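Treating backbone geometry as a discrete language has practical consequences that deserve illustration. Part of our work consisted of pairing the sequence of a single chain with a tokenised description of its backbone. We regard such an encoding as a compact summary of how the chain folds. The amino acid sequence and the backbone structure tokens for this protein are reproduced below.
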Amino acid sequence: MTRAVVIGLAETGIAVCRRLRDEGADVTILEDAPATSERYRARAEEARASGATLVERPDGSAIRDAVQGADLVVPSPLVRVEHAALAAARAAGVPIRSEIDLAGERTDRPIVAVTGTNGKTTVTTLIAEMLVASGRRAVAAGNVGRPLIDAVADVADVLVAEVSSFQLACSATFHPRVAVVLAIAPDHLDWHGTYEQYVAAKARITAHQTADDLLVYDADDADASAIAAATTARRAGFSRRPDATDHAREIDRELRAADGTVLAAVAGMRRAFVHDRTNALAAATAALAVGATAAGIRDALANYATLPHRVALVGEAGGVRWYDDSKATNPDATLRALESFDSVVLLAGGRNKGLDLGVLGRAAPRVRAVVAFGEAAPDVAAAFGDLVPVVSVGPMRDAVRAAADVARPGDAVLLSPACASFDAYANYGERGDDFAAEVRSITVDGAPCR
């Protein structure tokens, strides 16, 4: 009987426990910080009912005893590589596997895996929708909300998975048929320690690919291109440069494959901001490799509904449009969102994740005013300095009212924080919802209140 130790009892941990118990494995779960929420209690009850052993707040002795008798250790995402159980496993020679490793080992269907810093969820869901529109059965899973190890039991022709740097950092066997590496920019350095380690984790998506596999990459990004240069897989790039003749690109308001085949007209896309077109090129290049058709790609792009909190229009009044981009939790995401507007009142701030917010100043020509909020307000203000007017406030309510005071007809008011939400909210979704509610509260009869 396989003896497995699972670290962490969040969604991934219980999914791994469920699968391994179904296979007859002896499972011990180590949970360092058991929550008081109903969701945690339900997972704990399910784990115990399955026959797994749950050890809450394990001490050093309990960790060593669990690992010493194990055949396998599976860390959940966000479990740090220096965790005592992982250190004990390495010292004892016990194999460490990521959940995505286990999932890949349990299916013979092609996996399309997507990583990068920004746009992962959008590209993942777009690939799945392009395949479905082409008559292929496809399932989107992974970091989009449903563990990949659950999805391997689904009836599908292709599994499309968003994979994070946290999952990849501990991966040892993960082998996607198609790997997608979007642009990489500093993020999660508070977890990875250095940018180099963050990039190295992303690179693991192609570590086990062979010459029969494909790596799709952002040819305009230096780190993604470096990963592509080192892979043993076939390569297919995408680029925003119309003269990038070796790559998928946009020419004359058309998205085209590397061979020049027209995939879609920009005018036919449901939404076509700059980053939307880049995401569409990435998704189409990957989807074509596993059975999508040009017609299916066009259909998906014409009907794709933008995911919440990603430059989503939440209000319009007095000639001013209000956009929720709360998902932008790093400066690169904010800079990419700003590319699609000419005159912006930017709301930025929250909790910095150890990143250089100074790069936001590059967008000053597009930004007419800045409202800095939350813990990082001083850093946001410093990023723009004397380049544009900056108002510093505290909570979201004050931020929205300050933006309304300075916004003019033709402006886009954009919540694109460049920071995490944890100084005031449980997650970026809650922050975005608060922003949208405050926007609604200042709109009366189609005109913003002053």
